[in-house]
Amino acid sequence: MSVVALAGLVVGVLVGTSTDLPAQFEEEPSPRSPVVVGLVSDIFAESASEWEFELPVFNATAAPVEATLVGFDGAALGVSSDTAENLAGGTWGRIQFSVAANCDALVPGPMNSVRLRVHTGAETSVTTLPLPGRGLVLRDYHQAMCASADPVPARELVGVWVVETVYGSDAWLDGRTLLMRFDRDGTFVTDSEGDLFAEEVDVRGRYRLEGDLLTIDVTGSVVGCVAPSRATWRVTVRDSRMSMVWVRGVCASGEPGHAWVLERVIPASGMPGSPG
Fold first, then answer.
1. Measured by CB atoms within 10 angstroms of the end CB, which terminus of the chain is less buried, N or C?
2. With contact defined as beta carbons under 8 Å apart, do 246 and 252 qualify?
3. pLDDT tens for residues 6-20?
4. 131 and 18 in one domain?
5. Are residues 86 and 162 in the same domain?
6. What's 56's domain CATH number?
C-alpha cells in the first residue's frame, strides 16, 4: 500500500503501530471539519494486537489534534477505541478499535457516516463525517460473527479450505495462504506451504462436530499450535464459505469476538478416496 497524497501534500510519519495507509480515499478535508477519515480496514499485524480494526484519520488543520472513535451511524455495534494522539497538522494517523457485534440486531446496512470525538487545543467536540467504503469490512465481520447457528453435517466440513480473513489476535495470518483439510475419518491438517497431503505439515490432529460446534485437538505440530492443545469453534457453512467463531480453548489463541472466514477450494467429492 502506498503513501497517500492529498491536496498536494505528501503525507509522512503516522500515528499508531503501522506506517502504511490505504491508497484510496473518497473524501477531501472539509473547511468545516478539522479532520477527515479514510477506509476502515482490518489490522494486519505480525504480533497479537488488542484491536481488530483501524480507521485512518487526516488532520486538516495546522495545529495538533487528538481523535477518538465514538461510533458508526446506522450500526448497532459496541465500539472500543484508542486515540490518535498529537496528530500533527497535514498528516494522516490511525485510530485502532474493536467492535462487539450485536447478533440480536439486523445485519448493519451501509454506514454512511462515522462520529469522532476531536480535541483541538482547549476545545473538544463530536463531529460526524462521511465514511468511505460505507463500513463494508464491519458488515462482513458482523455477518461472520452472527451467521445462523444451524447444525453442520460432517459431509459439509470434509474437504480443503483456505483461510480468507482472520479477525482477532491471529490477524498475522491475513495475507498468508493457510490451508485446512478435514477428512472423513475425523482427522485434520493445516499447512501454510500449500502441501496438505505430505508427511510433514504444520499442524495435525483430530476433530469432532456436535451440532454447530467444532472441537479440534492438536496431536502433532511443526509450526504454530503446540501439541497437545484444544479449541472449540462455532461453525457455519454456506455453500463454499465457512465462518469459524472462537468459543473456548487455545490454538488458535482466542478471545470472544475472534473469528475466521474460509473459502472451500476442494469439496468432499474431490478428496482422495472419494467414491468414483
1. C
2. yes
3. 333 222 223 333 334
4. yes
5. no
6. 2.60.40
**Using CA atoms, how far apart are residues 103 and 245, in angstroms rounded to an integer?**
13
Q: Among candidates 12, 4, 17, which has minimal Cα distance to 97?
A: 17
Mind listing the pLDDT tens digit for each residue in 112-162?
Answer: 999 999 999 878 999 999 999 989 888 888 888 887 667 888 889 999 999
Give yes or no: residues 117 and 166 share one domain.
Answer: no
Instruction: Verify that 137 and 202 share a domain, yes or no.
Output: no
- The residue assigned the cell 499450535 is 225
**Phi, psi at 39, each rounded to 5°:** -80, 130
**Phi, psi at residue 173, to the nearest 5°?**
-75, -20
pLDDT for res 3? 29
